[in-house]
Amino acid sequence: MKRIETLGFLGGGAAFVLCTVLVATTTSGAPTSRMPAASATSYAAAIYDQKTAEGASEASLAFDLALSRYESGQGTLDDAISWAEKARSAHYTPTAATEYRDRLLKVEKAVQKRVAAGTATSLDTHAIAYHRALAEASTP
Questions:
Q1: Which terminus of the chain has fewer CB atoms gathered within 10 Å of its CB, N or C?
Q2: Rounded to an integer, what distance in angstroms lies between the CA atom of residue 80 and that of residue 74?
Q3: Long-range contacts, 130-139 (Cβ 8 Å, 24+)
Q4: Cα–Cα distance measured from residue 56 to residue 20, given in angstroms and rounded to the nearest whole number
Q5: CB atoms within 10 A of CB 58
Q6: β-bridge mates for residue 3, sequence order
Q7: Rounded distance between C-alpha atoms, residue 17 and residue 33, angstroms
Q8: Distance CA 115, CA 109 (A)
């Protein structure tokens, strides 16, 4: 007989990761074997790292799409900035602050082009300048 147990692990960024463990039991229901706690923790940490890396990749792709939509006049500045922030926080690495700043510089160039073409207002110029300045302040 087997039963399934779900164990919770707290990962970096206060994310909650669940790890399901198959436990072999005797006919009375008492466990006969179980994954050692250290192995379960390592497994949960590996799953957490894999999923956060996957999330960071998807957020980066979403940023690229949001920026393209903004450049073409179909998307909003807020969407592009929001996805830049999500890409930064999805999987924080030592280079995340620099990557975030670089993304905002790309958005700022798109804003400048749209303002020059008359398809964006000075509000966009000030909004992106604000976010870029904060990003530069936190970049080592």
A1: C
A2: 11
A3: 131/81, 131/84, 131/104, 131/107, 132/101, 132/104, 132/105, 132/107, 132/108, 135/97, 135/100, 135/101, 135/104, 136/101, 138/97, 139/97, 139/98, 139/100, 139/101
A4: 24
A5: 14
A6: 23
A7: 23
A8: 10
Residue with tokens 């082009």: 113
**74 forms bridges with which residues in the sheet?**
none
Q: Distance (Å, rounded) from C-alpha 137 to C-alpha 140? A: 8
Neighbours of 88 (CB within 10 A): 24
Task: Tell me the two tokens of residue 137.
Answer: 């302040």
What are the residue boundaries of the structural domains of the chain, listed by start?
2-137
Q: What is the pLDDT of residues 85-113, one digit of tens each?
A: 999 998 778 889 999 999 999 999 999 99
